[in-house]
Amino acid sequence: MSGCLEILGMGLNIGGTLLVMVACGLPTWKVSAHIEGNIVVAQTFWDGLWMSCVVQSTGQMQCKLHDSVLALSRDLQTARALTVISAVLGALGAALTVSGARCTNCVRTPSTKARAVMSGGALCVAAGLFVLVPVCWMANNIISDFYNPQVPHANKREIGSALYIGWAAAALMLLAGAALCCSGLQDGKAAYTVKYPISKSPVHNGDYDKRNYV
After folding, report:
1. Which residues contact 213 (CB under 8 A, 6 or more apart)?
2. Neighbouring residues of 99: CB distance < 8 A, sequence distance ≥ 6
3. 3-state DSSP helix/strand/coil percent for the chain, to nearest 5?
4. Does residue 206 come out as left (phi exceeding 0), alpha (psi in the -120 to 50 range) or beta?
5. Of the N and C termini of the chain, which has fewer Cβ atoms inside 10 Å?
6. Neighbours of 15 (CB within 10 A)
7. Which residues touch 37 (CB under 8 Å, ≥6 apart)?
8. In what side-by-side order are the strands of the sheet with 61-65?
9. What pLDDT does residue 213 have?
């Protein structure tokens, strides 16, 4: 059971880390909303953490990197930093988990292997939280601006595909962390199992067997 949880956690960790990297690089965090006067438009605007893109109705797309980090909105600045940290933590968690896995010989002591797997699981949980916070914050801002009557229709945005990928990545990372922590706990209990010596039994005449004193 512990080995299955370990393999499951490693797979979820790798998948979640890759999804975090994909969400971080995609420019579709915010997508222009086609409502009322914007139903028929020739351009669609995408806003990402690193660039903004304009998609023409003909299919052509032009992207431009953000000139300044300080010129970005606060949610984009926070999302950029936290998603990068999440990807780094996910990679570190995967490295720790592999070093403490049963199929590797990087660490030989069973108790140290269990601690390494649990540390990798803790990093996975932290990575999931680090990507979940900016995604939820960004979605909340998009929804608030969408229903705000003071925001012009041309400036309203919808939730892009990158946010859905971020939610999926957060779920995978949290599940990976839970599986790895459970696996490490089971391995730790097995490593610290107390083995009691077999009690010496007397012989028929009431004395102890001489072999017990050798």
Report:
1. none
2. 106, 107, 116
3. 60, 10, 30
4. left
5. C
6. 17
7. 153, 154
8. 61-65, 51-56, 43-47, 30-32, 157-159
9. 47
Q: What is the DSSP letter of 155?
A: G
* pLDDT digits 0-9 by tens, 39-88: 556 678 888 899 988 888 777 888 888 888 888 888 888 999 999 999 99
Which residues, 6+ apart, have CB-to-CB distance to 23 below 8 Å?
83, 131, 135, 162, 163, 165, 166, 169
Rounded to the nearest integer, the mean pLDDT of the chain is 82
Instruction: Answer for the pair 182, 5: CB distance below 8 angstroms, yes or no.
Output: yes
**How are beta strands 30-32 and 61-65 bridged, if at all?**
unpaired
Q: Which two tokens stand for residue 46?
A: 């995408």
Name the one residue in this structure whose structure tokens are 């002591």.
Answer: 109
- pLDDT above 80 (res 197): no
pTM: 0.79
d(CA 118, CA 179): 9
Please report where in the chains the tokens 């299955």 appear, as a residue: 4
Mean pLDDT of the region 101-114: 77
pLDDT band at 172 (very low <50, low <70, confident <90, very high): very high
d(CA 50, CA 83): 12
SS3 127: helix
> Which of 12, 13, 45, 20 lies closest to 156 in space, CA to CA?
45
Question: Residue 52 in contact with residue 27, Cβ under 8 Å?
Answer: yes
Amino acid at 153: H
